[in-house]
Amino acid sequence: MNTLAELLHALECDAAVPAAIESGAVLALPLPAARLPHAAHVLARSQAHLAGIVCEQRNGSFALRYPFWLPRGLPWLELVIDVAPGGTVPSISPRLFAADWHEREIEDLFGLIFSNHPFLGNFVLHDEVWPEQAFPMRHDFAFTDADGAPSPYQPQQMLQAEGAFLMPVGPVYGGVSEAGQFLLDTLGEEITHCQTRLFYKYRGIEKRAEGMVAADALLLVERMNGTNAFAHALAAAQAIERACDCSVPARAQTLRSFWAELERLRSHAATIAGLCKSTALAVPTSLAYQRVEELLRLSGRHAGHRYLFGLIAAGGLAFDLDDAAARELAAQAQAVARRLADLAEELLFDNSFIDRLEEVGVIDAKVARRYGLVGPVGRAAGHVSDLRREQPYAAYAECTPRVAQAAEGDNLARLRVFLDEAAESARLLPLLATQLPAGTVRGTCATRAGAGLGWTEAPAGASTCFARLDADGRIARLRLMPPAFANWHAYHLAAERFAFQDFPITLASFGLSMAEQDR
Amino acid sequence: MIAFLLFLALCVGGGVITLLVRDRHAAVVATLFGMLAGLALLVAAAQTLGGDVWLLPLWQLPALGRLTLGADRLSAWFLLITALVAVPVFLFSARYLRHYAAQYRTAGAASIQLFLLASIGLTLTTRDVFGFLFTWEIMSALCYLAVNFEHLHDATPKAGLIMLVASEAGALLQLLALLLLAAHAGSTQFAAIAASAASIGPGVAWAVFALSFFGFGVKAGLFPSMGWLPRAHPVAPAPASALLSGVIVNLGIYGIVRINADLLPVAMPAAGVIVLLVGAFGAIIGILYATIETEFKRLLAHSTIENMGLVAMGIGAALIFRALNQPVFAAMALIAALLHLLNHSIAKSLLFLSAGAVDTTTGTRDLNALGGLIRKLPWLAGTCLAGCMMLAALPPTGGFASEWLLIQSLLRSAELAPVSVRLAFVVAGALMALTAGLALSAFTRLFAMAFLGMPRSPAAQNPTPLPASMRWALALLAAGCIALGLLPTYLVAGLGTVVGTLGLHGGGGALVPPFYAPGSALPGDFVSSFHALGAQLGSSFLPPPGLVLMHRGGTANPVVFAAAPAYLDLALVLGLLLLWLVVRVFTHARKLARQRAWDGGLPELKPQLTYTATGFGNPARVIFSAVVAPNAAHVEEETVARHFRAAIVRTERQPYALDRWVFGPLHGGARHIANAFAAMHHGKLNGYVAYALAALLLALGVSFWI
Amino acid sequence: MRLWALRGLRTQRDLTGFPRTLELAPGMTPGRPVDGPAAAADVCPTGALRAEGAATVVALDHCVHCQRCRHGGQPMHWREDIAWSHGEGAPLPRAFAHSIHVRVLDAGDCGACLAELQQLPAPQYSLHRLGIFITASPREADVLLVVGPVTRAMRQPLLDTYAAMPGPKRVVAVGACAASGGVFGPSFACAGGVADMLPVDRVVPGCPPPPLAVLEALLAVMGRSLPRAEDAP
């Protein structure tokens, strides 16, 4: 299935073939619900990549959107189905496993039942904390503590063997660690199965965004994952801009790429530092965090905020960065990146460090494809996809990055991909700084009713955002589909079959945020 | 002698009466007789150890020679161990056997135990070949009956049968060894055999050694014929298990010592090396399995193999030292081995009874299902801890003293000339050190998994209370564990005379020097050799007499090794007391807050979220996978809706190491040969006629050739 | 095998002068709004700025560093400092003046506050030189440092962790979320900060507060003397 026409033919949507095919366009394909599994089956075997599932409540009924992105030169496809009140949705997870968690999330938050999905419930809303019949994303949701009692805590064992037990890690564990839980099914020493239990940090961002003005919703999205704030907020801003048909000035587009690359460099440096920390090498850990701090200070100096909060605005950027400062920033960031590369070179010649990474935490290409892994984790396992290249946004159409990749899928491969990407970001920064177009960075963006999809390649992978605005220009639905969601789904596979002591290293090598997952 | 005959009368009479009274009284009657018999045996053993060595010639049998009973100090030592174990075991069984009443006839178990006790006494006191073999067979048969008591269980009859077969194979070898000796001496009397031993040629001597060592080794659970033991010992009722692992295995050691150190003292160092290495391999394999086993009694059975291996190492060292003309070292090694035998018997019977107690109160012996019993059964936990510490060789228990002595006597191999022998000692010493380390882990695990943490099953959550008689039985044995640790010196001195009867003199004196006797001064040369080293040695700061184990060396090395277990324990107690006082004083004013265990913020700590016995033992299983690796671990993933894993089911078969290495291939080979022969049975008439013709021709040919 | 210790010794020193001085390197802190015209309060999305007469009062606990009042038409005056923690709680007893153990607890943080805390052991701040150690077990912790608005699922773990700590103990709320709920709370999924659950001894506002602001709060909890604002160069 090489051409869009063939793909649409297989999907039995020949009528929808557009006259002109372009990247960045979103092609909506309304389907009857019954044809959904077949469509999922076709798309799972094509080069399409599921970004997530968007569920919208429209009075009593629900509309579900399944956005897929296609390789460069082809548009996005969006399967759209309607679900009558009280109806069930055919689950596509058996055909397209990447949809598994999205369906579970929608079941928990909307109370929509996915037929043929074997594990529903106790996902976002933990049974021991939330009552069974709480569906916070529904419009009529009004929750008080008096509404029903939670169920008793009952951890489930997956491993059935003589003497098998669960090793609980979290939700309060380690030194400075995010709140989440891993239940390790084991007979001792070796992890047979890892149950990743997340959503301890479920803050209800999507619900809270409803009714907000676009600018305030962006503040929320920034704080979905504060360490990758810019990339996610950019996705949301682009969704809003697409919904309201706003145009973004050229200078803002280039600067958006510029800040995004600076953030990627810092985020990857922090991931590398975390990996050093997990192997208990004190000096490399210190040196790596020293690099991170240098990058944070660069951001703080030039953007006013160490994590680039408050920078993004619908229609451009909140404030400008002058050309000289941009060039200085780029040069300094490149110097930091060079020091990071020097450290990496030393690390990669340290056998004791390599031994702990090599052939540990392996994710093979088949799994990566089946789970639809994104970002460095997917690319390190040979499942290469980068939205900057596939569906360019901001200034990436003119300034295409080289996409790092590896085939081994182990901790070391991931480290190498993070290093290569950090180096690539450092290469792009001066290029972007020197080709800043003149002009303003903030276009006028009058919000109005509409819906749109926005996407970015966040440091951790593809981040997609769906926004619907009502007639007042306020958010009616904001759906965040961050990369962590896809990658956490497969994390347990990397931890399995390895010893307890490899667990934190594998965890660090994924560089995943729980805050981003939980939202 | 009178006391011993009384013991026999009480056992046999008690056994018969037990069978006659009503079933619900049987256990109590047997307990009364058993305890009285045990006390009589204790008196008999003490008298003999004190010097009352007796010999009682009985009837002259046609063709089989005269039956003779008699006890020397060696017999008496084993009788003493038997008596010390028997008294609490019978006390325990009074209430314990009751829970079989619904399904079985308890009188059967009770009387078998009494008869078994009698047969043990007789085996240790027969002084002629025929009598010995005869009582041995009776003892073996009674063992089989004791093991087979719970015959309604699936595993029991098979385990009993395996034990019987192994035991008979061993008995066959013993028979040959004893017949070789009797044939050479021209008499079945042990006295006559011992007298004629000097003239036995090396070939016969090797044959007698090999046959007797590997023959008796079966009963003692020595490498490589110990596979039956972890199957058979655990399936018997707890008191019988205690007798089997506490006393019956000793009979195997008795046979080895009796023949190879008394009747025909081994003169070949190589034979000693074999014993040493066999002991070492048995010890390490035994403890490895104990480290990963999750069934309480099977774990104990594996530990029996380990301890018998340690005892065999001591015996092997003694045989080597003796063959290389180091009688004092030989005596020391043998003393250590025999002391360890006593320690092991006490601790092992204590733990088997504890296993029985756990079984009665919770209904399970699966360590994965136990846990947290210390809160409901502190008594049982305390006594069991004493036994665990004993087998982990920790002070203040006797296990520390005997294992320390054992390793010290192995270290004396430095004095030996042949490099090959020293090498064997190095290997054995290393394996013993590893064994000791693993033993600590195995028994920490046993105690922790049964008594600490959370109950991992409903049964372990609500144990029924333990009857007083059982508690007393356990307390007696636990007190024994501590007493043996406090005052091993008195036993060592006594053991000096025991090994003296085997012609190994000077051991007791070397280990418990006579100058530490009350009122005596330090010998001048001892003091001056210290002074030569620049040490000012005065009697003023030396510990009072009788409590120091030490070995004197030459001038350059006045004390090779020394320890005062009683003082060590005293220091331990004082230290703990001090610690308690310090904690008490410094925390006096502060409020003590109690919070639940920190669980990382879980809503509730559940038993399935805590370590199991399997998990605790898994590192050992991973590291020593070459020995204990499962043959076939089968992992099956159950999935639903194509991708979703619902369960991971892991099953494994874990054949015993020796079954894998030796008996499995042997069995396979035999089957292969049998199959080859079976191919001859093709059912064609003319084929069979051809066989007959061929056989006839062969027979004719052979007869012509001859 | 690399000689990392030597490599570490060869590295140039890059340590902050804090707490001897208040000297700040550029970019170390985002700063904070301190005063400005009354009109500036209109752009604030969280209500941290409130017009009082002709001036604007700043409730820093609610400030999420969105920078709108910095770049607006009527800009607020921002001061680049770090000493902005506050609290009523008494410092720990004197015995803790030289060393404390801190349990960091994530109660729904977005990652930025945690990332700033991750920077504390970095060579630029070197938390350990001040005798402050981050510990995994609350059993040995003296200070509970909470980030995030306290989500529903983290409520009980937060209370359990606090209960598991031996006294004397102090609670430090770090970040706008922990101080006031920030952009998230209070809502159906989040509380309005740690004070809804536990007695808070010290609050470090900021979104996120820079590492030095946290360090300053910890030193205050230890009862150590701190450089005053007039020490700043």
Task: Describe the structure concisely for a colleague.
The complex is a heterotrimer of chains A (519), B (706) and C (233). Chain B has 706 residues and is mostly helical.
- Under CATH, the topology of the largest domain in chain C can be stated as Rossmann fold
Strand fraction band of chain C? 15-25%
How many domains of chain C, as an integer?
A: 2
Low-confidence stretches of chain B: none
Q: What is the strand tally of chain C?
A: 9
- Spans where pLDDT lies below 50 across 5 or more residues of chain C: none
**Approximate helicity band of chain C:** 10-25%
Radius of gyration of chain C: 18 Å
Name the average pLDDT of chain B.
Answer: 86
Q: How much helix, percentage-wise, in residues of chain B?
A: 55-70%
Record keyword descriptors for this entry.
heterotrimer, A: 519 residues, alpha+beta, Beta Polymerase, domain 2, Cytochrome-c3 Hydrogenase, chain B, 3 domains, 5-stranded mixed beta sheet, 3-stranded antiparallel beta sheet, 40% helix, 16% strand, B: 706 residues, mainly alpha, two-stranded antiparallel ribbon, two-stranded antiparallel sheet, 6 strands, 68% helix, globular
Give an account of the 3D structure.
The complex is a heterotrimer of chains A (519), B (706) and C (233). Chain A is built from 17 helices and 16 strands. With 519 residues, chain A is of the alpha+beta class. Chain B folds into three domains: 1-264, no CATH class; 266-583, no CATH class; 662-705. In chain B, the strands form three sheets. A two-stranded antiparallel sheet of chain B has the order 1-2. Chain B has a two-stranded antiparallel ribbon with strand order 3-4. The termini of chain B are far apart. Chain C folds into two domains: 32-79, no CATH class; 94-231, Rossmann fold (3-Layer(aba) Sandwich). In chain C, the strands form three sheets. Chain C has a five-stranded parallel β-sheet with strand order 6-5-7-8-9, sandwiched between helices. In chain C, strand 7, helix 4 (155-164) and strand 8 form a beta-alpha-beta unit. Chains A and B meet through strand 8, strand 9 and strand 10 of A and helix 24 and strand 6 of B. Strand 8 of chain A pairs parallel with strand 6 of chain B, so a sheet runs across the interface.
